[in-house]
Automatic annotation (TrEMBL):
Disordered, as annotated region: 1-107
Protein's cellular compartments: Membrane
TM region(s), chain numbering: 111-134
UniProt-recorded name of the protein: Mce-associated membrane protein
Keyword annotations: Membrane, Transmembrane, Transmembrane helix
């Protein structure tokens, strides 16, 4: 049994290197298939193949240089690059989320048209509400002025009478009234006021109070809407009858409710405060 010997690059005798090279060349020739030679005649008969033996050179065979040991990282990178073919990374391998396909352009237009339609409808609704509120405000402001003037005109007529012409006074007052209050006023004046005034020769004269310096009458609007208003009045009533020796002055506060009708603003309620 031959002892194994280790061969180190650059060491050893020339004869040993020559034998090693010759053995390698013989092994290569033994494993290589022999190509047949083609004939030169018209029939191109194939001649049996021949094996060529090459004599070693006088200087002997030299071993090819051994490759330098590569770095571990370079070896791993080269092995990984040669083992797997180059291919683009998939979104799942790279950790990125797959990109969604953008929606069709026609769908975006339909959505935009629908949104614009909703915005337009909302704008019209808001404009209608604001217009209605503005119109209500204007009508309420107009109602305040009209109801205030009607209350100042109605108070002296409704709250005054004279036993000498009761029917005329009550008829003038009823013309300024409306609704249930008109019926109630007719029953009260007929059953209570008229008999008492006739018996005691009663005379009542009412006027809306005014400041001593001649300012505006003491009338104010408590609330107002396009069809209804509540007015507060300060009324002075002077009463004369056979029951008193001299005229009596009563200072009253009256809350008068007015309602707009086809014939204008009319009194629908009177409350003494």
């Amino acid at each position: 049994m031959a002892h194994p010997t280790s061969r180190v690059r650059g060491t050893g005798s020339p004869a040993r290197r020559t034998l090693t090279a010759a053995a390698r060349a013989a092994a290569k020739r033994a494993g290589r298939p022999t190509l047949p030679e083609r004939g030169t005649g018209p029939d191109q008969e194939t001649l049996p193949g021949r094996t060529l033996l090459i004599d070693p050179p006088a200087a002997g065979w030299e071993d090819p240089p051994e490759p330098e040991p590569a770095e571990p990282s370079e070896t791993i990178e080269s092995s990984a690059s040669s083992a797997s073919p180059a291919s683009p990374e998939s979104p799942e391998a790279s950790g990125e989320e797959p990109q969604e396909t953008p929606p069709p352009r026609g769908l975006g237009r339909r959505v935009l048209t629908a949104v614009l339609g909703v915005v337009l409808v909302a704008g019209l609704v808001v404009a209608a509400v604001l217009g209605w509120q503005y119109r209500e405000g204007r009508q309420a402001e107009q109602a305040r002025g009209a109801a205030l003037a009607a209350a100042r005109q109605a108070a002296p007529v409704v709250l005054s009478y004279d036993y000498r012409h009761l029917d005329r006074d009550f008829a003038r007052a009823r013309a300024l009234l409306t609704g249930h209050f008109r019926d109630q006023y007719g029953r009260t004046t007929k059953t209570v006021v008229a008999p008492t005034a006739t018996k005691y020769h009663g005379v009542v004269k009412a006027t809306v109070a005014t400041p001593s310096d001649g300012g505006a009458p003491a009338v104010s609007v408590v609330s107002a809407s396009p069809d209804r208003a509540v007015v507060l009045l300060f009324v002075n009533q002077v009463t004369e009858s056979t029951q008193v020796s001299e005229p009596r002055l009563d200072l009253n506060r009256v809350r008068m409710t007015l309602t707009r009708t086809s014939g204008g603003w009319k009194v629908s309620g009177v409350d003494a405060l």
